[in-house]
Amino acid sequence: MTDADPVRLYRTVRLIRRFEERAVELVHGGQIVGGIHPYLGQEGIAAGVCAALGADDVVAGTHRGHGHVLARGADPARMLAELCGRVTGLNAGRGGSMHAADFSLGVLGANAIVGASGAIITGAVWGRRRQGRDTVGVSFFGDGAVNEGMLLEAFNLAALWRVPVLFVCENNGYATTMPIAGAVAGSIAGRAAAFGIPAARVDGQDPETVRAAAAAAVDRMRAGGGPELIEARTYRFDAHHTFEHAVRLDYRPPDEVTRGRARDPVRIQGERLPDADRAAVDAEVEATLDAAVRFALDSPRPDPADALAYLYASGLTGRTGGG
Amino acid sequence: MPRLSYRRALTRALADELARDDAVFLLGEDIQVGASMVTTGLARRFGADRVRDTPLSEQAFTSFATGAALAGLRPVIEFQIPSLLFLVFEQIVNHAHKFPLMTGGQCAVPVTYLVPDSGSRTGWAGQHSDHPYSLFAHVGVVTVVPATPADAYGLLVTAIRHDDPVVVFAPAAAMDVRDDVDDLVPVPLGRGRIHRFGDDVTVVAVGHLVHDALAVAEELADQVSVEVFDPRTLYPFDIDGLTESVARTGRLVVLDDGNRSCGIAAEIIASVVERVRLLAPPRRVTRPDGAVLPFAPALDRAVQPGRDQLATAIHLTMKDGS
Ligand SMILES: Cc1ncc(C[n+]2csc(CCOP(=O)(O)OP(=O)(O)O)c2C)c(N)n1
Ligand SMILES: [Mg+2]
Fold first, then answer.
1. Is the CB of B103 less than 8 angstroms away from the CB of A99?
2. CB-CB: which of B140, B163, B236 is closest to A313?
3. Rg (chain B; Cα; Å)
4. What are the residues facing B254 on neighbouring strands?
5. Cys-Cys with B251: which of A51, A144, B201, B315 at CB 3.0–4.6 Å?
6. Is B128 a catalytic residue?
7. Which one is the CATH code of B193-321: 3.40.630.30, 3.40.50.720, 3.40.50.920, 3.40.50.2020?
8. Domain coordinates of chain B in residue numbers?
9. Distance from CA of B94 to the nearest CA of A (A)
10. pLDDT per position as a tens digit, A219-277
């Protein structure tokens, strides 16, 4: 089931990279309101992990969630339309950057509450397996989430009930401006160990390394193993959130940023391809994104009369707010 | 006619739904042996896989239920203490409730949160005696507070079959109420029930307070004709049914075991006066502002809305309007 094709892996990191760069432009241009948390620099993790998954698997992500959705194969055009708040978006313009979801691909959503995805994915995997499916799940979270009690409770529950969830910690060294040294007592892998969860620390900048670690974990889980954790060390190339493009916050030393950006997952994976193949992928990705931007910006905006459509799956409607 | 207690009505509803639909399963603390005496016998009948004891991890198992619901199951969580709802308000509101809208209708989250012995348990003090139903009505989570065994059965069944999250409060003071019940049937959400017809004043009573309201109505029967309206569901609220009642009586008193400020009584009164011109100012009998239930029994009782207070409120509204 694992997709070990280096070209496809390159295409995924390249797609996420260029998608995010385009999205940042659209933020600056005012077409995306509210800004985004760019996934720039961390592409290898979503791409590598999702290359190890099958069609019936489920993932849940974070506020920095575009990469996970795209790596599962979501349509970039509908994803971009979602960021632009259009009815054609994945979530009909109701979710935006931090809640993009595609249930048809097992993407149970980006989630803006830090540490929330672990328990949800544990229940989703358990529920699907109870229906006889062979699902495994991935909960993506940052280094900031490892101090959230509900995530640690989820570690316990998944391990206790042997629910095959791959917990993927994208350790980019900071929770907003808080460096990991100021926030994490003990270690991330040590938290997993406390619950008897096997943990691996990998270089998150190398998509192949991430894919291999995830594939090995997924194989063990499909063979009946319980949850595992991967701590992928990475670096966020850009701002925590695009608001930082307007308000410069001084918390990352410039030489650290330079060093961090030098290990670029897109370049690392790209160098594994012959130049001509890489150029072909780049051109195809560019054409895809050109079309995606056009689709998003040409799409209709939702009708304010339907602002609370979908509030209740049961079809319940509440009173309106006017006098 | 078989006599059924409120507590057993809840057990029956759980058993019937577990038997009817394989997607239904229960989660909670000490539910296999049935410490709450609600899930009694269910683990033996349906197995430990469907009646699952959890570790003390309310936040994780509440969101676990959300995930299981996203996968197509219908989890029912039993909470051991009403105050635990404060721990999981985040999981219920930010995730279970918001997912359908935020995903543009891609999913449903049919979870039932059952809170047996809600409100005061007498002598359990500050952290076991809350009745936070107004909070859920405020955020728009379906909220039911049945008063009788038949409604406890019928509303719990409906909650489990409902496609959105539902919080079911089963007040401690109602759990031992017994009734002759001949047919156990689902009760629709958002439909109130008039327990006693009257001409002079409509008393809206929530949950166990329905029984206090009926007792007071009986006591005052030779002075004032009291109608007792039980909303049964606080959200969605049967405002049409209540409007019809108040339009006849012209007077409104609300009896609510929540804190006063921003409580459901305030909402009920506002909703009625938006529609009906009353003969007298409406009244409400509630817990005081910001109440924390004190331990000593006399203090615990003093903070809960009482029958004397209700009788006084009824007299005042009668006097005001005449
Ligand atoms: C529970 C919670 N607390 C605080 C926030 C505000 N917030 C959003 S992202 C973030 C930092 C998260 O850091 P990390 O988990 O390392 O992820 P990263 O942003 O580095 O990808 C914070 C504090 C939140 N969204 N949720
Ligand atoms: Mg971080």
1. yes
2. B163
3. 19
4. B204, B284
5. B201
6. yes
7. 3.40.50.920
8. 3-180, 193-321
9. 8
10. 999 999 999 999 999 999 999 999 999 998 999 999 999 999 999 999 999 999 999 99
